[in-house]
Amino acid sequence: MDVLSFPWxxxxxxxxxxxxxxxxxxxxxxxxxxxxNLINFAHGAVFTIxxxxxxxxxxxxxxxxxxxxxxxAIGGGMVGALIEWLAIRPLNRQSRIAPLLxxxxxxxxxxxxxxxxxxxxxxxxxxxxxxxxxxxxxGTIGIVDIFIFSTAVVxxxxxxxxxxxxxxxxxxxxxxxxxxxxxxxxxxxxxxNMTVFATAGALGAIAGLLVGLYFNSIDPVTSFNIMLKGxxxxxxxxxxxxPGAIGGGLILGLIESYGIGFFGASYRDLFAFAxxxxxxxxxxxxxxxxxxxxxxxxxxxxxxxxxxxxxxxxWATALVVLLAALLPMLDxxxxxxxxxNALIYALAGMSLTLVAGTVGMVSIGHAAFLAIGAxxxxxxxxxxxxxxxxxxxxxxxxAVLGTGLAYPSFRLRGHYVSIGxxxxxxxxxxxxxxxxxxxxxxxxxYGIPPLEFFGLPLFSTNATYWFVLAIVVxxxxxxxxxxNSHLGRTWRAIREDTVxxxxxxxxxxxxxxxAFGFAGFIAGIGGAVTAHQFSFIDYNTFNLLISVLILTIAxxxxxxxxxxxxxxxxxxxxxxxxxxVLAEYRMMFYGVALILLIRFRPQGLLGSx
Length: 609
Prior knowledge:
Blueprint lengths: L7 H29 L6 H18 L4 H24 L8 H22 L4 E2 L8 E4 L2 E4 H23 L1 H11 L1 H6 L4 H27 L1 E2 L4 H15 L4 H22 L4 H15 L31 H12 L7 H26 L8 H16 L4 H24 L5 H19 L1 H4 L5 E2 L5 E2 L2 E2 L3 H23 L2 H11 L1 H6 L4 H27 L1 E2 L6 H14 L4 H17 L7 H15 L9
Antiparallel strand pairs: 1-4, 2-3, 5-8, 6-7
């Protein structure tokens, strides 16, 4: 579209309106981060709950809009307070990364509850507002636009009064500046944290209602995506900077609106995550940071609990492998298929436990490695390359490309590492979605050749199982050899104290690259096997929930523990398949498992490596 003929006013109004909603989300995230040094990944679930409370008030009970907004704020505040009380407060004595992972589990549980109560079907949402628009230049402004912007401004004003004109607000600001000093001065830290979570929950819930009014519908699957938009906004404005979060939300809204106008709606999310990555690389403290903003500290090594791995004799491992090889002899094809899927997840778990457990870089977008491997092998074999070479090529290309994509996160510190890997994972998915000429876009790739090894067919249930089992055994032995070498000791040194390791001459980025390269090779092969096993993949095959599932597997078995990754994969991926009557509760099961593990067994079932 020509710049001169572009309808700037219309898209500017749309950008300011949606940016106001992003600002409400971002303010809540910034409040929590400023006081608790925590990124609340459950904030998007509170947003969804707010939208459905609003639907209940407006469409089911017929309440007036002003009262519905008040009820939504109260409901969101209560949910936020419960999150702090039940999931965050018990982890106060844990490492700093533990509460972050706990909020991921809480988000899964809350999203699943919404699905169960209201179903996954989107619902129409509207309010009894006059249908008129004001003409401004060549554009128009509607009553809904004015209401959304006004609600955001009023909410920001009330937040200002709370923070700067009340005693609890003074306590919140004191805690954000120095929680230890505030505690010594008699500030009740738990009450402050609960107040902050309740306030953030109220703002997030109101944002959920406003988005529903803006698009005239609500959808339970939007929670994590909108939370990520709030996260982008606080990175733009400054992680703990509340005024900056408002500015960041408005900037993001305008960037998205103009991007949609010039390139189309399918690029909306790609713009957001590209901006996030650029901010993390070049100005991680945000556009509105103070001149002497404190730099984030490294978080490598802050989650792995010091413990001795559970000793497993070599003969016991060999016996288990032998029994696993005999599983197809039971003539239970369904069980064999389930265990094949579990072994593929084991490959992903092993690759993540290397970078997150051994090196200490918690990756929340690890499914991107599987997606790259799946598409590489599928495209090459569809072009005529033998499947065996396609699998090998998938591993090599994923190792190279995955390391290159993850390299920018090597220089990040603190929570920015998790945010950066999450952004990279989403960018890979969005590139797959929008690169129609290569990936076939949203239609996906179909007719992918089945598994075979230089003419030897492997597409039967038993043959596929034995083939994947062999890959798992070989990958496990190779990874164990690496961990017991000088390279493995160097990785663990980086995990325990990056600064100390660099002081002794360790090139941490080089060794992180080696870890991601090996992890990408293993995960890429796992993704490729999945593509050939099912003969179809699309951009949603390896979504964010798969990344969360892989993370749960790694934590369940024990970060850095190879055998634990296999055990975790069997428990997390296989057991729910055995109870398919409870399939709709599967994600809730993952969320509960993640929270319980972090709370009571952070070192995993077999201990951290």
